[in-house]
Amino acid sequence: MRELVRGLKFHKVPSLLIFIGFVFTALARATSQQPIVEKLILDETIQPVSAAMLDRAIARANSTNAAALLVQIDTPGGLVTSMRSMAGAILSSRIPVIIYVAPAGARAGSAGFFLLEAADVAAMAPGTNAGAAHVVFEGSKPDETLSQKIENDAEAFMRSYVSRRNRNTEAAIAAVASSKSYTAEEALSQHLIDLIAPSDTELLNAVDGRQITRMDGSKQVLHTKNARIEFVQPTLRENLLTWLVNPNIALLLLVGGALLIYLEFNTPGTIVPGALGTLMVLLGIFALDLLPIRFTAVMLLLAAFALMLLEAKFGGHGVLAITGILCLAFGTLTLVAAPIPELRINPWVAVGVSLGFGTITVFLVHLALKAKRLKSRLGADALVGSEASAMEPLLPEGHVLVEGEIWRAVASAPVPAGTKLRVVGHEQYLLRVAPVESASQPRPPLELAQE
User: Fold this and answer.
1) Element housing 155 (H / E)
2) Order of strands, sheet of 129-131, starting from the edge strand that comes earlier in the sequence
């Protein structure tokens, strides 16, 4: 009996191991069959850094063979060149791209609307809006012919892919031509988007099994139900560039670095201000290079610096300094030719930097020039105009006490010891002195020492 029971237990062990192996195999298979959707969040302006982030996300989604790339956006718009680059990347992506305007309160304004319409699947969360995609000209508007060319080009770019996405071309063009903006519900009713979804999960479940038409005309069915979302995190470099691409930060880095470099030139050997200032200036220039810069504004900045130097060197009763500060203010205000306020320099920052930098620059340059003039009057030069006291009779040469130092001096006429003198010149290390005339004190009698 015992042997029978022992045999039964022996036969149950392999069965249990087989069952456990079957469970793990089933779980692994279920996990491997679960679709993966890469997700990128763009909640910033459209500029070269965001374009690079989208390129990296599309490349990652293509390499991992993801079911789709979900791009959640909340943007006021941005640069046309970056928008075209990003829209082209979406249109040519091998993996379907889903653009999702979220969360509630988000927007896809201006350039963001072009990206929304370029997507294989366009979706919005409740309480969001999109549109207002008219081309904005910062500063002076070009002539009518050039303006019409630019606007027609933007409209043609929109038409080139909206119709292939089977969306409302007329409503999309209205957003470009007349800055029409739509709520999520209006966009859905106008066939500008494919659906409204309150969350990522509901969006992916809603589009599961939907057939989409790619730009090459091929059909593809989405499989996104219960997909595992893998976030595409920004790299350290992208975080740094996103921070630097803020024009206000770039301007502060440029101005602060310039002051530190100037401080290094005036106090050579400190090293730290020069190294830190050089780094800040290079970072500021690199950041501004990512933005559209007006060369006329750069000329104004150079003129401002020249005027401040002239004020410190020659003195213009403040006129040159005020003119330089005004040039600096206008230059910083118009430095970045951006189509949206988020990419322009804040007026308060421009005025504050101009006043502060102008005042500090004039003050420092004035001190530097004053110190340079003093350095040129070392030794006997520095004593001209100083009072001296005759330590012995000058016949006409002798020793005098000047500024606590004993010097040989020569007078135009013999003077007794103790006479108050004034240094009027020098010949190398021999001072020329003359008696100090005083109306209140009579001149002492002349007592000459006999040799």
Assistant:
1) helix 144-162
2) 107-109, 129-131, 181-183
Q: Which of 343, 145, 366, 152 is nearest to 250 (CA)?
A: 343
380-435 matches 34-235 in CATH topology: no
CATH H superfamily, domain 380-435: Nucleic acid-binding proteins (2.40.50.140)
Instruction: Tell me the pLDDT of the chain (451 aa) as tens digits.
Output: 555 445 545 455 455 555 565 545 544 444 457 899 999 999 988 989 999 999 999 999 999 889 999 999 999 988 888 999 999 999 999 999 999 999 999 999 989 999 999 999 999 999 999 998 777 655 455 567 777 888 888 889 999 999 888 899 999 999 988 889 999 999 999 999 999 999 999 999 999 999 998 888 889 999 999 999 999 999 998 888 888 888 888 888 888 888 888 777 766 666 777 788 888 888 888 888 878 888 888 888 888 878 877 776 666 566 777 888 888 888 888 888 777 777 778 888 888 888 877 777 777 766 666 666 555 455 666 677 788 888 888 888 888 888 778 888 888 888 888 888 888 888 877 888 888 874 334 444 434 333 3
Report the run of H or E that residue 248 belongs to, with start and end. helix 247-266
Burial of 436 (0-12, 13-18, 19+ CB in 10 A): middle
**pLDDT at 68 (0 to 100):** 94
Cα 292 off chain centre by: 12
Structural element, H or E, at residue 181 = strand 181-183
Separation of alpha carbons 122 and 112, rounded Å = 12
**Beta strands at 68-73 and 121-124: parallel, antiparallel or unpaired:** unpaired
Tell me the C-alpha to C-alpha distance, in Å, between residue 182 and each of 25, 108, 152, 431.
Answer: 49, 10, 21, 88
Domain ranges of the chain: 1-32, 34-235, 246-375, 380-435
Q: Are 337 and 292 in contact (CB under 8 A)?
A: yes
What does each C-alpha distance from 280 to 140, 257, 300, 354 come to in angstroms?
Answer: 31, 5, 21, 18
- Cα atoms in the 13 Å half-sphere on the side-chain side of 356: 12
pTM for the whole structure? 0.69
Half-sphere exposure of 256 (CA within 13 A, CB side): 12
The CATH topology of domain 34-235 is 2-enoyl-CoA Hydratase; Chain A, domain 1 (3.90.226)
Beta strands of 33-78 (E only): which ranges? 36-42, 68-73
Half-sphere exposure of 375 (CA within 13 A, CB side): 6
